[in-house]
Amino acid sequence: MTTEYEVRYAIGQREAKGYDTQALRREFLVENCMQNDKIYWVYSHYERFMVGGAVPVTQSLKLETIDALKSAEFLARRELGIINVGGEGTVTVGEQSFTLAKEEALYIGQTTESVTFNSTDKSNPARFYLNSAPAHHAFPHKKIGKTDANVLHMGSQATSNERDINQLLINTVVQTCQLQMGLTRLAQGSVWNTMPAHQHDRRNEVYFYFDIASPQAVCHFMGEPTETRHLWVTNESAVLSPPWSIHCGVGTGNYAFIWGMAGENLDYDDMDKYQPNQLR
Question: What is the DSSP string of 157-211?
Fold first, then answer.
C-alpha cells in the first residue's frame, strides 16, 4: 500500500496533566510523516485536522481517500495545503500541474479531481508536507512561491529569537475555507520560536520541524500556560497542539518549522499571548 494512516483522538487538559513522557509522545508527536514512496496521514480529532507527508521516490503517488473520511474522494469535503521541504517536485490536480521547489506551497481547494505527486529527480526527491481541513466551498487551486508570501520579520538576536515568518496560506495571500499555513526560519544564532508563547482557544495548530541537523534536536513546549510539558523532537517530526495548549520551542541549533492551523476564523492574530515570566 502507498497510503497509510492513523487516528488520534482529542485529549483534554485534565487528562494530559497526568501523562508521562511516553504517553505525551504517543498522543501528540508524529515522527513518521515522511516515508519513501508513501503517503502517510494522522487524522486528528482536533478540528478534524489532518497532517501528513508524501515522498515520491521511485513512483508517482496518488492522493487516495481513507476509511476515516467516509468519502469516495479525499477532497470531496476537504481542502489541502502542501509545502515542499525537499527537492523539486510536481503536484498534478486534474489537468493542472504545479512545480514546487523547496519551501514553495500549493493550495488545493475542495475537488473531486485526481491529485498525484512526483519528484523531478529521484536522487533528490520532493518531500511534500501536507495539511488538510474540512471545507465548505471550492476555492481555486493556487501555487504560492517564495516571493508571493507575506513575510514578517520578528524577534531579535538579543532575545535569541530573530526569525522570518513566511505567511503562505493565509487569507491575504490565498482564499481558503479555514486552513492556514506558513513557514518560519530562525536566523543564525537564534533558537527560540514563537516567543512570547500563545494559545488559540478557537483553533488548533500543528508544528512540523525540519532542517534540524543531526544530532541536534528541538525541545517543543506544550500544555496549559501554568502546566507546561515538553517534547524532544528530531528532524521532520510534527507536534499536534490542542486549542488549550501553548506552543513554542527552543533548539540546540538552527532549524525551521511549518505551522498549520484550522478553526473558526481566519484572523492570524486571534491568540492569547503569555510572556516568558508568566509560564510555569
Answer: GGGT--EEEEEEESTTTS--SS-EEEEEEEPTT--EEEEEEEE-TTEEEEEEEE-
Tell me the three cell numbers of residue 75: 477532497
- The pTM of this model reads 0.97
Q: What mean pLDDT value characterizes the chain?
A: 96
Write the CB contacts of 53 (distance below 8 Å, at least 6 apart in sequence): 33, 34, 35, 39, 40, 127, 128, 129, 130, 236
Average pLDDT of span 222-247: 97
pLDDT band at residue 57 under the 50/70/90 scheme: very high
Do residues 38 and 24 lie in contact, with contact meaning Cβ atoms separated by under 8 Å?
no
The structural domain count of the chain equals 1
| Distance between start and end Cα atoms, the chain | 45
Q: Which helix (H) or strand (E) holds 105?
A: strand 105-108
Q: Which three cell numbers stand for residue 200?
A: 488559540
Report the CATH number that the domain containing residue 251 is assigned in CATH: 2.60.120.10
The pLDDT of residue 267: 82
Name the binding residues: 198, 200, 205, 247
Give the residue ranges of the annotated binding site for Zn(2+): 198, 200, 205, 247
Given a contact cutoff of 8 angstroms between Cβ atoms, the answer to whether 128 and 54 are in contact is: yes
